[in-house]
Write a structure and sequence with these properties.
By secondary structure, the chain is mainly α. It folds into two domains: 129 residues, no CATH class; 87 residues. 72% of the residues lie in helices and 0% in strands. The protein has ten helices and no strands. Helix 2 runs parallel beside helix 4 and helix 2 packs across helix 9. It is globular.
Length: 252
């Protein structure tokens, strides 16, 4: 491990701090349109979940890139930091629901916070599973574990509620990724998020170019693109990837 453990933990703590601020900014950006309605609450929920997913992706990216094959040893630290972030954003969510703009009832606040907590806990569990099992690879410099135990893949598929039967058209993947890269390059999003998206794409390309690339790993990595593209409002690129994923579902 080229980077010290203390330095890696510090980097993860920095990501958590930065993403907490980003989530607050995203929530503040929609505050003017919030009112007591299911649409308003759903939009608030969407923004917070997207922020948490973005934070989780950055954490996995950082620890896998910095720690390499020892990434799984950081699972406990990541779990604690992710839990702390989850608690903070749920507190922010509760504040918004109880604000003068929304004025949700106490019962509605409790129900909404409970639902959000369950979703965020699943997201964090998936992230820890990714680090522990090394099932998702976000850095092209790492050694790809092309053989993932069937039991692990099946459990993840059941947990996420979708069948593990998709097949990926690898021949069509380069064109898709090129179009997404072009959309990112032509956008005006900040450099940090642009680099994070480009790293995700590079990792997908690296795995796809390997002989007998693991289909489940590729599909999981491609599925992570739409939420990341949506948060930076690259709707056209998001639509391209979602259409590609839908086509994968129809392959024999």
């Amino acid at each position: 491990m080229a980077v010290s453990r203390r330095e890696i933990v510090h980097r993860i703590e920095t990501i958590v701090f930065e993403e907490q601020r980003s989530i607050r900014r995203d929530v503040a950006a929609i505050q003017g349109g919030l009112n007591f309605s299911s649409t308003a609450i759903n939009e608030l929920t969407r923004v917070i979940i997207a922020g948490m997913r973005r934070a989780n992706a950055r954490i996995v990216d950082e620890v896998c890139t910095s720690a390499g094959n020892e990434a799984r040893k950081f699972a406990d630290e990541i779990s604690e930091l992710a839990k702390a972030l989850r608690v903070r954003v749920i507190g922010l969510y509760r504040q918004q629901l109880m604000s003068d703009r929304v004025q949700a009832s106490p019962e509605e606040v409790v129900r909404a916070c409970k639902r959000l907590s369950q979703v965020l806990r699943r997201e964090c569990d998936d992230m820890i599973g990714d680090v522990r099992n090394r099932a998702v690879l976000l850095s092209p410099d790492l050694v790809v574990q092309s053989r993932v135990p069937t039991e692990v893949t099946s459990v993840q598929a059941i947990r996420k509620g979708r069948p593990n039967t998709q097949s990926l058209d690898i021949s069509a993947l380069p064109k898709l990724l090129l179009e997404v890269r072009s959309a990112i390059g032509a956008s005006h999003i900040d450099r940090m998020r642009q680099r994070a998206l480009q790293r995700q794409i590079t990792a997908i390309e690296a795995l796809a170019n390997r002989p007998n690339a693991h289909q489940g790993m590729l599909i999981t990595m491609v599925r992570r693109l739409p939420p990341a593209l949506k948060i930076v409002r690259l709707e056209e690129a998001e639509s391209l990837v979602e259409n590609f994923i839908r086509k994968c579902s129809t392959l024999p």
